[in-house]
Specification:
The protein is an alpha+beta fold. The chain has 2 helices and 5 strands, in the order αβββββα. It has one domain. β3 and β4 form a beta hairpin.
Length: 105
Amino acid sequence: MKIAVVLALLAVAVADKLPLTNPPVAILRSSQVNPDENGAHSSDFEAENGIVFQFSGKEAEEGGANMVGYFSYPQEDGSLAEFVLDQIEFARLEDERKALESQEE
């Protein structure tokens, strides 16, 4: 039992000296509009590490929501990952490839 207590204290002392692997990130901008009487809502967020998230939308009459937005985050090489734009470009290239394949048949 005494060994367990000593090891626990040693672990706490060592952990206190370790550098933070994920230091805190400041939030530069954050606003949110909850659904109003028409069901409109939005959110806008930016952090100092380059993460940006924006969307707006309106609740659908059938349930669910119709939304548009954008987000990006920095990759390890410093470039920004723009998932939505990358996916749109991927879909465009895929459509072009399928159109070419259908012409060749």
